[in-house]
Specification:
The complex is a heterodimer of chains A (316) and B (550). Chain A is mainly alpha-helical and 316 residues long. Chain A is built from 14 helices and no strands. In chain B, the strands form four sheets. In chain B, strands 8-9-10-1-11-16-12-15-13-14 form a ten-stranded mixed beta sheet, sandwiched between helices. A four-stranded antiparallel beta sheet of chain B has the order 4-5-7-6. In chain B, strands 2-3 form a two-stranded antiparallel ribbon. The chains are: A mainly alpha (316), B alpha+beta (550). Chains A and B meet through helix 2, helix 5, helix 7 and helix 12 of A and helix 7 and helix 13 of B.
């Protein structure tokens, strides 16, 4: 197992380097000039040139990249010209909100998607299977922002049960915190569960045809035990992959959802920074998200090994 | 002083400055015939008047305090996230920042709901006859939230910090009228100006970045972290700030205006999405929101639980033609482009009639009222005729900001002009590029704006005087130059109004700009929320708000 971790970590190095190059290029290719954004619309060319020199923007792109990378290596992602806040501090303040939102959304998606998938696989082609599958297809077609507005209309305006916007930190009480995240997490989760359900359903149907399942049935094991213990685990590989990849999708969704529900998360920080041409923050946040995505996929790879011994022993 | 008439947003920018007020029929400080010899007497009169008005306000406030309910919390929703308040960091305040600055800070003057300039941190003021030197007497006994005194040195410190070239403050651009300030004593500040500014006291009233005062001690001690820890003299003190979510402000127990404020707490929440911003008021999560979405405003007007406040300012949105470009240097072409536009239809289509077509550059909030501004009307046949006499095929590039609002407006005008045979392509650029290209006159047609200032003088001079750096149309007319110079050298409003109307007539005839819609600002609040000030300069000001029923 340790060997596998080591091998994967070695592969990770070029991936991370590529991520840093792309992140740097993305921010460099954004329209607008950082010096002009900092100095204002009436900055003189001399002042702009002086600031270019001060910030190293007059250097060739590869030199700028190396300067930026060496600062990143020691944890210095720079300072926002818009707020004067360090990027690390800004990310630190916003990260818990996004993590909590994504965690709750993923939990919501799994809580709906997994049981439905098991039921549909167990009763393949039944009326229930068709109904749930059609429902999942319908949910997949629903744009998140429409669902968000629908949920706000029902649960905030009509029923008055949940707040429509804003975030309450966990430190101010669990109930208030959950109430503030209920609608955004439900929006993201309700859009995600159909994917998980369809993937797991297909895998479970295949697993249920395996010989060991026939053997389990022949041994007279209860149906629930066969489904949840013997069939679910080997059927989960694709589910785990999709769940990992979903984090990237969720983060993309969070960019929209955090703005709709006015949540102070990473997605909104990114959007605000792009609109205000705060390139340094854009760079920092994109890098952070990209590294997070790479790390999650690394963790997913490790989970494979735990779920399937053939991968652990290099036989798959 | 905030002369931020240059920053564009292609028909709707965050309005960094300006002053929209209804009328200023009697400018408080100045007198046209005042001679240097009469200055002392005038100064005394002015001071006495200021003190009297201050006393009257204090008395009326104390009386009012008995009538208004005290206590309670107001949660106000603004559109944009708040970056901070240090001028050197943020450069310009947007609508969220001005709404908060109205609570945290004070300005030297204020405009009352009748449009009159009133004392705030300044008790009185006077000017020299040429309006290039203004003296302000400050209110004694005012303290910043950190306990340090507000005095003339603090005023000078704030301005010098913004004006220092070493500080590279974006805000310095908006202070170009100021040569320097000095403080002869603790309670006297003198502004020395580069050119005459007739209504300086009114221009100093909105809580924009260059008009509010920060504690010198806090600025020096906190350094870079000051931006998110502002210390002013205002009626509320910052209690907590969760970036991107909310700022909590508590009543300043030591506020200099006895009995103010009425509320215990104000919470400012950035709500960027228009749909959920409105939903937040409907669901009761928020008590008042800044609003510019016509759909929400029209719905709120039909809801008896809500109250829509509207203020029509003293500026307008506009389209600018670069008259230095060959085709657009021909007045027939510019007139044809104006005749091609159905402005009433445009107003209905874009704002559902909430904003009215503008006939001149002075909105209803301005003291300038033109009976016959001579605006050209929608007449596609006339447009075609003019283009025929021009005789060449016309292709133009219309520069818009690359966002839905800019794009939509661009497409509407594109259609109007296409109908008379003008091929227009949209040049979509980001906001920074938009402004930079405009100032470099590297465009053919672009969106722009006359923002709400108490005095049209500085803005009109900058936009239309020959050789002005921000005359982005490259327009030049000796008669307009003469009228602009005359109008800014007198305080007689009748004379000024006449001059500015003559200017509007010439501009309407020569069409370097097309005025599109009057500036109008809106807020939606729970019906029980009282005491919200007029939305001058698009500032959502709840500093004197109170609850009718708790």
């Amino acid at each position: 197992m340790l060997g596998l971790v080591g091998r994967k970590l070695v592969y990770l190095v070029p991936v991370v380097l590529a991520v840093t190059v792309l992140t740097f290029l993305v921010a460099s290719l954004l329209p607008g000039d950082l010096a002009v954004a900092m100095l204002g619309d009436q900055a003189t060319p001399e002042n702009v040139a002086a600031l270019h020199r001060k910030l190293g923007l007059d250097l060739p792109l590869w030199q700028q990249y190396l300067r930026w990378l060496s600062a990143v290596m020691v944890g210095d992602l720079g300072t926002s010209h818009r707020t004067g806040e360090t990027v690390i501090h800004a990310i630190g303040g916003r990260l818990p909100v996004s993590l909590e939102l994504m965690g709750l959304a993923e939990a919501c998606a799994l809580l709906i998607g997994v049981p439905f998938a098991v039921i549909c696989a167990a009763r393949r082609d039944s009326a229930l299977d068709r109904t749930l599958s059609s429902g999942a297809f319908g949910m997949l077609s629903m744009p998140p922002y429409m669902l968000a507005i629908l949920l706000v209309f029902v649960f905030s305006i009509r029923l008055g049960l949940l707040p429509s916007t804003g975030y309450t930190a966990l430190s101010q009480g669990l109930v208030a915190n959950m109430r503030s995240l209920a609608l955004p997490a439900a929006t993201l989760g309700l859009v995600e569960w159909p994917v998980l359900m369809r993937v797991l359903r297909a895998d479970m149907i295949a697993t249920l045809r395996e010989e060991f399942i026939v053997a389990a049935k022949a041994k007279g094991l209860p149906r629930w035990r066969i489904l949840l213990v013997h069939a679910l685990k080997p059927s989960s590989l694709t589910l785990v992959t999709v769940t990992g990849l979903n984090l990237g999708r969720l983060l993309g969704g969070a960019v929209i959802i955090e703005s709709i529900f006015a949540l102070p998360g990473l997605g909104r920080l990114l959007v605000d920074s792009i609109y205000s041409r705060d390139f340094i923050v854009v760079q920092g946040v994109v890098l952070f998200i990209a590294l997070g995505f790479v790390s999650v996929n690394f963790a997913v790879d490790m989970l494979y090994a735990l779920l399937d011994p053939r991968i652990r022993h290099g036989r798959a | 002083m905030h002369l931020a008439y240059y920053v564009a947003d292609n028909l709707r920018l965050h309005d960094p400055a300006g002053l929209a007020r209804r009328t200023l029929r009697k400018p408080f400080p100045a007198h046209p015939a005042r001679s240097q010899g009469g200055k002392d007497a005038s100064l005394i009169r002015s001071r006495l008047c200021g003190v009297l008005i201050g006393l009257l306000w204090a008395i009326s406030s104390a009386g009012a305090a008995n009538a208004q309910n005290r206590g309670g919390v107001v949660t106000a929703g603004v559109e944009q996230d708040i970056a901070g308040f240090d001028p050197l960091v943020v450069g310009v305040y947007d609508t969220g920042q001005t709404a908060t600055a109205a609570l945290l800070f004070d300005t030297l003057t204020r405009i009352d709901d009748e449009g009159k300039v009133q004392p705030r941190l300044a008790l009185s003021w006077s000017s020299t006859p040429n309006f290039k030197k203004w003296t302000f007497k400050l209110r004694p006994g005012v303290k910043f939230h950190d306990g340090t005194p507000f005095n003339a040195q603090a005023v000078v410190f704030n301005y010098e910090r913004m004006l220092d070239p070493q500080n590279h403050c974006r805000c310095a651009f908006y202070l170009n009228a100021i040569s320097n300030l000095n403080a002869p004593d603790d309670l006297t500040v003198v502004y020395h100006l580069r050119y005459p500014v007739v209504q300086l006291p009114a221009l100093l009233s909105p809580p924009v970045v260059t008009n509010v005062f920060h504690s010198p001690k806090a600025v020096k001690e906190m350094g870079e972290s000051y931006n998110r820890h502002p210390v002013g003299t205002g009626p509320f003190v910052l209690k907590s700030w969760q970036a991107g979510d909310r700022l909590v402000l508590e009543r300043n127990p030591n506020y200099w205006a006895a009995g103010h404020p009425y509320l215990d707490q104000v919470v400012i929440r950035p709500l960027p999405n228009a749909v959920t911003r409105f939903a937040s008021v409907l669901s009761g999560d928020v008590d008042i929101v800044w609003e510019d979405t016509s759909d929400n405003i029209l719905k709120a007007r039909k809801n008896p639980a809500l109250r829509v406040r509207e203020y029509v300012g003293s500026g307008v949105s506009a389209i600018v033609f670069n008259t230095l470009k060959p085709a657009l240097s021909d007045v027939r072409v510019r007139q044809a482009l104006r005749h091609a536009i159905n402005m009433r239809g445009f107003a209905e289509g874009v704002t559902e009639g909430l904003r009215k077509p503008a006939l001149d550059p002075y909105g209803p909030g301005s003291f300038v009222r033109c009976a016959e501004p001579g605006a050209l009307h929608y007449d596609p046949a006339k447009a075609s005729e003019l283009l025929k006499s021009y005789g060449k095929p016309l292709k133009l590039k219309f520069m818009v900001t690359a966002e839905p609002r800019g794009r939509a407006i661009g497409q509407i005008f594109q259609e109007f002009w296409k109908n008379v045979g003008v091929a227009v392509t949209l040049d979509e650029v980001d906001q920074t590029t938009f402004v930079t290209k405009s100032f470099q006159r590297d465009f053919e047609v672009g969106g722009w704006r006359i923002i709400d200032l108490a005095d049209p003088g500085p803005q009109m001079f900058a936009d239309f005087h020959t050789g002005s750096a921000v005359n982005i149309a490259g327009y030049s007319n000796p008669e307009v130059d003469r009228l602009l110079e005359a109008a800014r050298a007198t305080s007689d409003e009748a004379v000024r109004s006449e001059d500015y109307c003559k200017i509007a007539q010439i501009l309407n005839k020569e069409v370097p700009w097309i005025w599109t819609l009057q500036n109008a600002y809106f807020s939606i609040a729970k019906a029980q929320l009282m005491g919200v000030h007029k939305q001058y300069s698009d500032v959502l000001d709840v500093s004197d708000a109170w609850w009718e029923k708790k």
